[in-house]
Amino acid sequence: ALTLPGWREGAPIPIVQVCDVMVHPEHRGGLGRNNLFTLMLRDLLARIAERLPTAFRYGFPGWRPYLIGERSGVYERLEIALESRLTGPRGWNNLWRAAPLDWQDTRLDALWERLSGQCRLGLVRDRAYLRWRYADNPSHRYRLYGLSRLGRLAGWGVCSEDGSEPSLVDLWLPSAAVGAALRALVARLESDLGRTGIRAWLPDGYRMALGIPGAETPVVVANMRWESAISAEIARDLLYYTMGDVDIF
């Protein structure tokens, strides 16, 4: 499990992501407390609850491991992650502009402070997080783009070129301006990368602003329910996440 700084409705909390669970084939199976998977997860989550009682714990298992965790009483589904394909606009009447941004730009912290009120539950997406998660990542390469309106930095997006097509793995922008801001960002990414179509995981409201659908992925967004301080019912309405919350992107 990985612990990172999080935010819940105006206050900092720890956010814990269960990254991986492995059981040797010879020791799989069994029911109830004879199931090693159940024993390990319940013990891990109980320890987290004791040490970090306010923490939100979540993960992104595939369907098969999720079903095992659900039967064990440790996983509870929030939703199926949906993937959308974004394409750039065909017009030029957009006040938003996207341009490459340095990972050390101090305005990133000011931007998080300015927009933190719209984060009801999620990771603290400040400059330290961006540097740790993307700039210093030893396995993947990313590009950071700033989003400006009338010359003022008002959002950012992180693009990965790994995989079969480019991905918008993370973004932070004013929710009231999602449509125009994302159209400007996607147009810039398509121009810089010479590719049409950028894939992304977007909240429902963002997809509605763009008028695009989302297709189900094999990934389940799961609440770690065992001795949890935050129920699935609450987290389902509050959680903000992107592809960047998952270590495979």
Q: Which strand order spans the largest sheet, edge to edge or round the barrel? A: 5-7-8-9-10-4-11-3-2-1-6
Q: Give the terminus-to-terminus CA distance.
A: 17 Å
Order of helices and strands: EEHEHEEHEHEEEHEHEH
Please state roughly what percent of the residues sit in beta strands, choosing from under 5%, 5-15%, 15-25%, 25-35%, 35-45% or over 45%: 25-35%
Structure annotation, total helices = 7
Cα shape:
globular
Keywords:
single chain; 249 residues; alpha+beta; 11-stranded mixed beta sheet; 7 helices; 11 strands; 29% helix
Commentary on this structure:
It is globular, with a radius of gyration of 19 Å. The model has no long low-confidence stretch (mean pLDDT 92). The protein has 249 residues and is α+β, with helices and mostly antiparallel strands. The longest helix is centred in the first third of the chain and has 16 residues, at 36-51. Helix content is 29%, strand content 30%. The protein has an 11-stranded mixed beta sheet, with helices on both faces.
